[in-house]
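Aggregate trends can hide what the representation actually does to any particular protein. For completeness, the protein is quoted in full, as a sequence line and a line of structure tokens.
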Amino acid sequence: MISHQHLVRRSAWIAAAVISCYLSFPFGFPCDAPLWAADEPEAKFEEGWRRSVPLSEPDKNGGTEECIAWVQDGWLQVKRQTAEGETEWQVVLARSADAVAPEIEFMGAARVARLVVRFREGRYFIRNTSAIRSPRPRPDIPANLVCYREYKTPGGDWPHVPLPEPDGPGRSMSFSPNRLRTCCLWSISSRPWLVTATGPAVDEPDCLVRLDHFELAYGPNGSVSQNMLVANVTRGESNELNVRDDGELLIANYIDDPTARRLVGRPPERANQIGVETPELSCEKWFNTDHPLTLNALRGKVVLVVFFNSSDARSIGAFRDLDELSAKYREQGLVVLGVDSPHGAPDKAVSDHGLKLPFVVDDGETAKRYDVKAMPLYFSIRRDGTLTFVHKAGPPPPRQIERLLERDD
């Protein structure tokens, strides 16, 4: 039997969730009409039901942010997907049997956007608020996710949220808010993102949130409050980003995909050059090719330019790791080439490390034109010769390469 004290705590948590939604943005919730709303199901709400709601205009590659809801194994799942098709957050919300389709609303205003999903007459819900069209990136105003979901029994017959492949050791914690329930939380480093997953047992996640971009975070850490598990990302002396969960109520403040892209996707000095023609390479000597390569001559190809230092083992390894990516997509039109630092040791790198991809030794001017301040650094170039993205944490994901290859321009 649930105690009076537990009910009081539960009411306090829900009140905190509502306040968290509102206070996440100093300008409050938007008051205009929904940009997209659906109160009636488009198809019978049963196994296999699916609905996709656009959350943005198509980007230059044709991708669109979406909220996707579907029924799988008798449970309603909801996720927010980026324009590149990557999962920003995902929740196994509640059982779908004997229910009607969820209500989904998306509202936008000058500075904020709010996504609301209501299920079983609002008993279970998701509220997701984020900044849009901000004049400048605001890492101090994170996106906010509040979710109240049905508790799952450990080992039960319910679908688990797929976890990203880790690139290092993670950290997990468990917590029992009462004798009837347990909650587990674990942090995963899956570059370029720090991901937090929660669920009733280890390796049984029912929620996933991309908490922060690897290049923005000092690192994940966790703790147990009196009533909830808490995962924080520490920035300086404050904990700005966090996920709190007790097995039913989840509250998260996280960096969303558009904000992360504005903050780390491209150097501020080159922000106005995204989407325009890329500067030509200024070079001294080419390796692993029988003729010099120019970006102008490579028009019609998707080009990945990698700045690296052939005298640094980590940088050499990053360039050599692209052999597989190049081999996989070469026939589809991908060209991978490197730009070595003028202070490198290219002859030694080729002989000792077996570099196979073509690269050129920079005379110093190319790095200046591309505003390269750290290596390795990756630049994706469309078939029309325009710069589409800058990657610091690692090469572009395969899905982004495939999107560029599918385009004709």
Summary: The chain has two domains: 7-264, 268-406. The chain has a mean pLDDT of 79. The two ends are 64 Å apart (CA to CA).
